[in-house]
């Protein structure tokens, strides 16, 4: 098979794997939220944060090293495997020995036994066959697809069965361990590589690994730093509420927007290489994405109680205001995704790393200073910092690349104006007397229709701008596609 064919096939398998895994993960979370309590989710959240922090330290990037190596032989693979098990084994031993100290630091002694059990995640990779890395290197993702989907289906089933009969947080812990253990076991059935302890030319792998570890730690701190502070200074109920609302509010971004924008790096890179990149391309991408993210954010914030009742049940509705606050994190998230992809396409990896490290430190510093017993204030500060951070990054972006004009601000404000008009319409209808489910369905339906009408009207009125012409052409193309499918 040609390289292009392998690439297309690999994209299909990896995309399908992500879709199934994320879908099952979302369904599992929504079902468990109705069976278990916020305290259960809080305890599991603390344990996973601690284990995954150590897991980030133990990830030496063996797979990435094998994939990027120009030539691969048994000595190279076995050296990577040896380094991997030595580091993971050492990190697991440290974690296991100091588990009481970790529990004491978090001021939650009840997490000691769950931590010891969950630490299995740190060493399950030791039984994995390193030949599995060669499958990724050769773009042979079909066996990996079978392994990952099979493992997810089994762990998903086990979690729900245990949760239904036992109704404790141990169901989630068993599921997490199985999710990491099963792929390692199954790898020995699809790979026949003979493992042998080797330390040939280990220096180059160590130099590569140190950057992988640093990058993993920065990514972990950026994504979970706020959750660590919540886990340290709030009780189990508040920890569970923050963790599940953070996951729920980010679902549209992680499940829909980010996968849809994954090709941006390659697209921007190709346009830059061919000296064919134009500012309108960036503007159009931002306008399209904001047209999706802004109304989603508005509906999540406006119908927070109804969404929480539908998705999680009445155990969580008392604190649904936290969900409405965290929903606004999607807007800076999608803006950073687009702008950072362009910076990386230009070869600017250092500015991205510097920005993420500095803003992570500043964010955690500010959150640490204001943290207290008020989760509402903490969440609002977190969102405010995110908007401030993206403003700083966008200012650097404009200073560096000069892609935007002043009138572009009005262009990007069109979805916000449309969402504001739609929300005013919902407020004027006063749906508070209706049953919560009817209010959710009718409210979201009316909001979506009014939003679409206002946005299309605003875009049409600004059709002299090339970005608006493109936007309208995409709408017409989608409409025609739906009509053709309907006729067929």
Q: Can you offer a commentary on this structure?
A:
The chain is mostly helical and 488 residues long. Helices cover 81% and strands 0% of the residues. It has 21 helices and no strands. It has helices spanning 3-35, 38-58, 62-68, 74-97, 99-105, 112-118, 131-137, 142-166, 170-190, 202-233, 236-261, 264-273, 279-302, 304-311, 320-326, 330-345, 349-370, 375-401, 408-429, 436-461, 466-487. Helix 2 (38-58) packs antiparallel against helix 10. The mean pLDDT is 86. The chain folds into two domains: 3-223, no CATH class; 234-487, no CATH class. The chain starts with a helix and ends with a helix. The relative contact order is 0.09.
Order of helices and strands: HHHHHHHHHHHHHHHHHHHHH
Q: What's the average pLDDT? A: 86
Q: Which structural category do the helix and sheet elements fall into?
A: mainly alpha
Q: What is the helix content?
A: over 70%
Shape verdict: globular
Give the uncertain stretches in residue-range form.
Answer: none
Major β-sheet, in short? none
The count of domains is: 2
Strand content: under 5%
Supply Rg: 24 Å
Through-space gap between termini = 33 Å
What's the total number of strands?
0
Number of helices: 21
Features:
81% helix, 488 residues
Write the layout of secondary structure elements.
Elements: H1 3-35, H2 38-58, H3 62-68, H4 74-97, H5 99-105, H6 112-118, H7 131-137, H8 142-166, H9 170-190, H10 202-233, H11 236-261, H12 264-273, H13 279-302, H14 304-311, H15 320-326, H16 330-345, H17 349-370, H18 375-401, H19 408-429, H20 436-461, H21 466-487
Helix pairs in contact: 1-8, 1-11, 2-4, 2-10, 2-11, 3-4, 3-7, 8-9, 10-17, 11-13, 11-15, 11-16, 12-16, 13-15, 13-16, 13-19, 13-21, 14-20, 15-18, 16-18, 17-18, 19-20
Membrane topology: Multi-pass membrane protein
Keywords: Cell membrane, Membrane, Transmembrane, Transmembrane helix
Protein name: Polysaccharide transporter, PST family
